[in-house]
């Protein structure tokens, strides 16, 4: 399996991606489900460049606190700069399967498009359970990449590109088993809601437009520059003719640790 390298270059790219229309919509949906209250202690697992951390700090207020965990020091550096004026925040470098925080220390935990990258997803979910207080709540958001509906005239290039892209994931269809995995970890009141991200334009504000440069770079590394160019050129030509179409379904899971 291949993987994305979450280095400084990618951190800078994601800084722009996380400001796009569809990602802003996703952050709003996640925060609505998390329903953070003033004074709560929140953990963001896979916090990336810290957008959720900054927004959640506003919601918990001075009486609450937020902790961000990420395996990339470059991402954590960006996140720390984003909230450098706040004192009720901390960051730790770690992966999702070994969180450097105490048992039962948080009112809520979120993990957005992270678990699909973790080979031992069950251990990561067990860690989410461990760090929650009794009655605490978890929000886990991941993409089922097999739900993609993507128009192409060069269908061979599209098939090759999607196969290559799947190599950067540990679990391309994680949402299919995520409810059962959450229950096995001990969670109750597990619920899921699907959200469609669709567009008829290859524009940066759309989810696929935002990640398209990352996809093209990854496909080039796996399948070769010529194959990636053939795929990308087909999509740009469809867009120019007004024939572009992309859709995928992303899933928001909510669960609770028994009181």
Descriptive notes:
This protein has helices at residues 8-17, 21-34, 51-60, 73-82, 121-131, 155-166, 175-184, 207-223, 225-240, and strands at residues 41-45, 65-70, 89-93, 106-112, 132-150, 188-199, 246-256. The protein has 259 residues and is an alpha/beta fold. It has a domain at 8-144 and 169-197 and 251-256: Vaccinia Virus protein VP39 (Rossmann fold). A 7-stranded mixed beta sheet has the order 3-2-1-4-5-7-6, with helices on both faces. The mean pLDDT is 94.
Helix-strand pattern: HHEHEHEEHEHHEHHE
Strand order of the largest sheet: 3-2-1-4-5-7-6
The number of strands is 7
CATH topology assignment of the domain at 8-144 and 169-197 and 251-256: Rossmann fold
Terminus-to-terminus distance: 39 Å
Based on the structure given, which CATH architecture of the domain at 8-144 and 169-197 and 251-256 is correct? 3-Layer(aba) Sandwich
Q: Would you state the CATH class of the domain at 8-144 and 169-197 and 251-256?
A: Alpha Beta
Structural class: alpha/beta
Uncertain segments are none
Helix proportion: 40-55%
Largest sheet: 7 strands, mixed
């Amino acid at each position: 399996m291949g993987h994305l390298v979450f280095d400084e270059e990618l951190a800078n790219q994601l800084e722009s991606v996380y400001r796009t229309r569809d990602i802003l919509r996703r952050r709003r949906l996640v925060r609505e489900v998390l329903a953070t209250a003033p004074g709560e202690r929140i953990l963001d697992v896979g916090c990336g460049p810290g957008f959720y951390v900054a927004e959640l700090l506003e919601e918990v207020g001075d009486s609450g606190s937020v902790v961000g965990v990420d395996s990339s020091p470059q991402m954590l550096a960006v996140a720390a700069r984003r909230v450098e004026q706040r004192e009720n925040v901390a960051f730790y470098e770690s992966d999702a399967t070994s969180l450097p925080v105490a048992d039962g220390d948080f009112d809520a935990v979120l993990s957005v498009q992270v678990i699909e990258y973790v080979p031992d997803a069950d251990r990561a979910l067990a860690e989410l359970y461990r760090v929650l207080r009794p009655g605490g709540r978890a929000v886990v958001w991941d993409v089922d990449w097999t739900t993609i509906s993507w128009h192409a005239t060069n269908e061979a290039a599209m098939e090759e590109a999607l196969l290559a892209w799947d190599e950067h994931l540990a679990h391309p269809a994680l949402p299919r088993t995520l409810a059962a995995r959450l229950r096995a970890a001990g969670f109750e009141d597990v619920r899921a809601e699907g959200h469609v991200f669709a567009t008829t334009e290859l524009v940066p504000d759309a989810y696929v437009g935002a990640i398209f440069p990352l996809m093209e770079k990854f496909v080039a590394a796996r399948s070769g520059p010529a194959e990636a160019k053939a795929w990308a050129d087909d999509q740009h030509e469809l867009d120019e003719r007004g024939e572009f179409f992309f859709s995928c379904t992303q899933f928001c899971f909510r669960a609770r640790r028994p009181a």
